[in-house]
Target: 6-phosphogluconate dehydrogenase-like protein
Amino acid sequence: MSTTTPNGRSDVTVIGLGLMGSALARAFLRAGHRTTVWNRSPAKARPLVTEGAVLAGSARDAVAASPLLVVCVRDPDAVREVLEPVAGELAGRALANLTSGSSEQARALAGWTAGHGADYLDGAIMMTPPGIGAPDTLILYGGPRGAFDVHEPVLRALGGATTHLATDPAVPSLYDSALLGLMWSSLTGFLHALALVGTEGVTATEFLPFATGWLRAVGSFMPGIAQQVDAGAYPGEEATLETQLPPARHLVHESELRGVDATLPRFTRDLIERAVDRGHAGDSYARLIEQLRAP
Ligand SMILES: NC(=O)c1ccc[n+]([C@@H]2O[C@H](COP(=O)([O-])OP(=O)(O)OC[C@H]3O[C@@H](n4cnc5c(N)ncnc54)[C@H](OP(=O)(O)O)[C@@H]3O)[C@@H](O)[C@H]2O)c1
Model:
């Protein structure tokens, strides 16, 4: 295997070659970027070296090899573990941290990186490894706009929907959490629906077209909800909470009757009931934002 010397020969360095880091390195290579790679366990670098990556002999060499460092390890503590011993090499470079973490951790890492004279971009990858490099893959960045603009042509290799959200490095983590929350609550709803219809022997595959079609309709409700949430006014123009309360109660009852976990439907029913009790029976579903904001 070839190894780098610390003389800045690559366009980009990828540190962390797990499932995601390897996909990132592969996308850079596919886009024709000279790519240096390094992983704590060197064996994971082998396939990438076969594909044209240069293996750094150490984390220090990896940092020294490129103006742009992309780090994707397990968590922010691991980022610090890798970079602290080589922090002296960071000055003048840009660190794009694509490791998942909290908004607090992003701000702390941004401060630490700035203290070592480097630009910090925090990135949230809204995709699994097979989708890295695809034209519609969304990767959200926060940090100095100038540093993003300089490195965007290289970073764009990871996803066509690469987006700079804010100069505050905390913002992508917040979007990441919000979008994952949306995914999990939707998928839990899907699984709950499967458990319910499964009590009548309906298979998941049979139910699937009804679920996906319905989610398209649900998506079409979202612009109206967003408009009402932004306006802070929730007129029940199409459906009121009063009309949604009985079906929400039926869902709880149906779940209990069939021995299916009713936690999720109870949560929704309770939100609607509380809003109705507080005098909002004529409002739309968007009214529930008030309770989520101030539980
Ligand atoms: N996989 C996804 O679908 C996905 C999607 C979006 C975001 N992400 C985020 O991407 C990051 C990496 O995920 P992954 O799926 O690639 O995980 P993974 O396959 O488990 O890889 C973890 C990587 O972190 C390294 N690592 C862990 N602890 C370390 C330490 N203390 N010092 C140095 N290196 C350390 C591992 O090195 P070794 O090989 O030496 O163990 C490995 O390279 C995570 O933050 C994850 O949340 C993943």
